[in-house]
Amino acid sequence: MPELKPTADTPYFTFQFGLLCLSNFLFSTSFNMMIPELPGYITMLGGAEYKGLIIALFTLMAGISRPFSGKLTDTVGRVPVMIFGSLVCVICSLLYPVLTSVAGFLFLRFLHGFSTGFKPTATAAYGADVVHESRRGEALGALSIGYTLGSSAGPMIGSYLVDHFSYNTMFYASSAFALGSVAILYNVKETLKEPKRFALQHLRVNRNEVFEKSAFKPSLINLLLCLSIGCTITIAPDLSEHLGMHNKGMFFAFFTIASLVIRLVASRVSDRYGRVPVLMVSAFVLVISMLILAFAGSVTMMMVGSVIYGLSWGINSPAISAWTVDLCSPENRGKAIASMYIALEAGIGVGALFSAEIYNNQASNFKYAFLAPAFFALVAFFLLIRWNRKITAGRSASPA
Question: 50: how many CB neighbours lie within 10 A of its CB?
């Protein structure tokens, strides 16, 4: 009997969907718990000048792997791709205590990028499979809640483990969380119709399979906005320490809690008012947050900037994912989502490199490091205004 397509009334939050959300939480906690502590770790190893590479190498591999994850998601299935992404976290986290040279650490950061290159791509495709297009923003917003909770809990857990135990304890805990994610995924039902058995030929990506053209606009906006992520991930831990907040994970906790709270409300908004208007609001709020962080002179001001930054991404993430899926054909969902994520990784990586270069371990340069992504977010804002006017004009010109 053929499987029915989901309708507007089809419930998507099933037991299987809940399992996937839990897996997302464990996966996100696994790699996010390291983020606030890695700048201090590489400094301890003697590589303070390479802080910008911590995120840049991770996102470089994630971006390189996206065309492969997109193709595999559309051929062998959503679940196997998600499992592979989580397994990468398990293995890399176990190897950090073994490869303790600067070169070994940076090599592992590069390999670790496979994890986010694979799992989020397949997860978003899964979410699009189980919901009607009229509720796509809502479903993808709900699916990302696990990631958001992990982004909040992970940095606090990581900083606590380093402060009270050691870096190695944090790495082993990271591996354990990722292993839990893998175990749960074995109980998640595949949603791709007629998945194929993996073969080496599936790793052959043609030139026209690297980037899905329909995803150009969402990808460009994602690139411009994600420069801010690379900046905050790289610079915020040092800013926290400079202002006297020793648990560097608190910045990320406030950011992700704000993101979660607004996401519970805003995930349905793009389904009602459109993706582009919602992204316009998100980009403008992001500009404000970067300006606040650029001139933060106290912990309170920094945390206000963190909260506003979280609000911008809580509004953005479901809308940008839903917009990407809206524009592509169903058979290319994996490739389109992968293309959007390539832009995300490029933005984060470039943002990390340039913010580290601008900052240059000098506290007086914090403001310049945060003003740069504010400028590019403003560019995104004006692009969205222009596209929204065209969309509105097109609707007005259409016959009733």
Answer: 20
End-to-end CA distance of the chain: 39
Q: Does residue 132 carry a pLDDT above 90?
A: no
Instruction: State how far the Cα of 137 lies from the Cα of 325, in Å rounded to an integer.
Output: 10
Confirm if 222 and 344 have CB atoms less than 8 A apart: yes
Enumerate helices (H) and strands (E) in the chain, giving the number of each: 15, 0
Question: Mind spelling out the 3-state secondary structure of 68-116?
Answer: HHHHHHHHCCHHHHHHHHHHHHHHHHHHCCCCCCHHHHHHHHHHHHHHH
Question: Could you give the domains of the chain?
Answer: 15-191+209-393 (1.20.1250.20)
Per-residue pLDDT of 51-74, as tens digits, reads: 778 878 888 888 788 888 888 888
The better pLDDT of the pair 5, 70 is held by 70
Instruction: Report which DSSP code applies to 9.
Output: T
H/E element holding 330? none
Place of tokens 């040279």: 101
> In whole angstroms, what is the distance from residue 108 CA to residue 99 CA?
8
Tallying the residues shown for the chain, one arrives at 400
Coil, helix or strand for 219?
helix
For the chain, give the percent of residues with pLDDT over 70. Answer: 91
User: How many CB atoms within 10 Å of residue 357?
Assistant: 11
Please state, in angstroms and rounded to a whole number, the distance separating the CA atoms of residues 90 and 93.
6
Q: In sequence order, what E strands does the chain have?
A: none
pLDDT tens track for 246-280: 777 788 778 878 887 787 677 677 778 888 999 99
Amino acid at 5: K
DSSP 255-321: HHHHHHHHHHHHTTHHHHH-HHHHHHHHHHHHHHHHHHHHT--SHHHHHHHHHHHHHHHHHHHHHHH
Distances 259 to 116, 123, 263, 290, 291 between C-alpha atoms, Å = 19, 19, 6, 15, 18
Residue 222 structure tokens? 């994602």
CA–chain centroid gap for 54, Å, is 16
| Cα atoms found within 13 Å of the Cα of residue 170, Cβ hemisphere only | 25
